[in-house]
Design goal:
Length: 185
């Protein structure tokens, strides 16, 4: 039964996730909470770990959840299920791409989806900041989380002002890890 739940849950994530992994986080949250596979805190940790490890976040999360719920085969099935819709869509798009690129309806649909994805990513970011900074287990933990968040935001902004380019996500992850050691150890 768990195998079928993993397949259906992550197939849903793979089918209805637009805008990449950050846009998929609310859907992933919904699926893992509905089945009780992770707690809210566990999901936040796994998002951080999945972001810090090589590979797409959705695939990393699916692999972890599948493994934690049903071992090796659970990991394989969850990963396969989350990747299958994208694989099928890419195959279909490569066949239809020449016609679709010049189709005004296709361009209009993409134009409508773009603001939606931006809103989903923004809402997810705001939700995670409030959940981790303001709703932490205790006031000192919330203050630590807020301090790390503000320090990372300041580093991004300061780097852009000083060097006139974006801070590398790798450096941001390393800085986040260092700040985590400083604030939480």
């Amino acid at each position: 039964m768990i195998y079928l739940e993993l397949i259906l849950g992550f197939l849903k994530v793979g089918c209805f996730s637009f805008g990449g992994a950050y846009g998929a986080i609310p859907l992933i949250r919904d699926v893992v909470m509905r089945y009780g596979w992770l707690t809210e805190e566990g999901l936040s940790y796994m998002i951080a770990v999945s972001e810090s490890t090589p590979g797409p976040i959705m695939v990393n999360l699916a692999t972890y959840v599948g493994s934690s719920q049903a071992g090796f085969w659970g990991a394989v099935l969850a990963t396969f299920a989350v990747v299958l819709p994208s694989f099928a869509v890419i195959l279909l798009i490569t066949v239809l791409l020449k016609r679709a690129v010049n189709n005004s309806f296709f361009q209009a649909a993409l134009g409508g989806v773009k603001p939606c994805v931006i809103g989903i990513v923004l809402a997810t970011g705001i939700y995670m900041v409030f959940k981790n900074c303001l709703s932490a287990g205790s006031l000192p933990e919330g203050i630590k989380a807020a301090a790390v968040t503000l320090a990372l935001a300041a580093a991004m902004g300061g780097y852009k002002v000083i060097f006139k380019k974006k801070l590398s996500p790798i450096m941001l992850i390393v800085l986040g890890g260092v700040l985590g050691i400083v604030f939480y150890s």
